[in-house]
Amino acid sequence: MAKEFEKKFVYLDYNSTTPLRDEVFEEIAECISAGNPSSPHWSGREARGYLDSARGRIAKILSVDPHQIIFNSGATEGNNTVIKGIAFYELKRGKTPYIISTKVEHSSVIRPLEFVKAIGGKVDLVGVDKYGIPDPDDFVKLIKKNGKPSLISVMHVNNETGVIMPIKEIVKIAKEHDVLVHVDMVQSIGKIKIDLKEIDVDFATFTAHKIYGPKGIGVLFVRKGAPLEPLLHGGKQEDGLRAGTQNVAGAVGFAKAVEICTAEMKEEMDRLSKIQKLFESEVQKIWDVKINGHPQLRIPTTSNVTFTGIEGETLLIALDLEGVAVSIGSACSAESKTPSHVLLAMGLTPEEAKSSIRVSFGKFTQEEDIEYTIEKLKSLLKRL
Ligand SMILES: Cc1ncc(COP(=O)(O)O)c(C=O)c1O
Q: Is 72 in the pocket of ligand 1 (CB under 6 A)?
């Protein structure tokens, strides 16, 4: 590894967001001034054409019917819609909502679950092992103990550790017990093949900005006939499930982004797997570190590392000053001083959790970026 490096900017925070692809930008630019897709005239017809085509392209990738694709503003909205939507549906029928989820979900699932509890619902969170993986049997035990829940909600890939959850087993359990199931697929789409004909979920949430698409556009997959109260009331857009004029250009951008990601997935994940191995082997040579998460059941774009005796936040700031962008926990919780709930659930002490950073790789990450980061880490760790 060369000794001298010029200062440069290295982005290793792809799990927070990804840069927009040029090809996506070009398609967005084509329809950015499209009209209102609900208008009955020529302008509306043109906009509707763009929107319907985007819906069809996304549906094809996910192997679902286009009518099951609901466009919204992103995965925070998608997760809120499913969790609160099911809770409101139950309350309207005079029933107490009961939702089972896990302790390692994204805040856009955890916070709505807290809201459900606050309005009188019941929530159980399944724990995880030291690798960050929940035991599917724990869902069965809870169902046996407390009765059939209104919903099981579980993420496909954890945003902080990259750990892949046993969703096939959990979905199977949900189906065996006739329970609705929701999977947050934000961090798996474009990295793991997703075929919703094979994984029989009732709801799935996606967002474009994690796959080189624009921010502020998401997709909620709703299986036909699945009950759900809309979060937003107003117009009849999106099958009555999401009122408000659609973000046509965003939807087109999402379609393009998901097409490219899917086409490049195998090759890109193989390449990033080498990048991840390089980073993890090099970082172990320079400090007493622990790589968090399962050694195999982990996507190749994420490394969560505990640097013994080092404050993660200080390391993040020091790296930033050297031009290297990483993260502590998820971007959404980065401003809070509390240690990551994901790492705590995996059995790390608060001190260990606070000594951890997340490094995430993507399209523009090259070996030289890893070498630069390791070189900077080496000198910073000595100083800190
Ligand atoms: C697992 C997971 N779910 C949901 C979200 C929220 O997505 P959005 O930014 O589209 O609201 C994120 C974003 O970090 C995420 O990683």
A: no
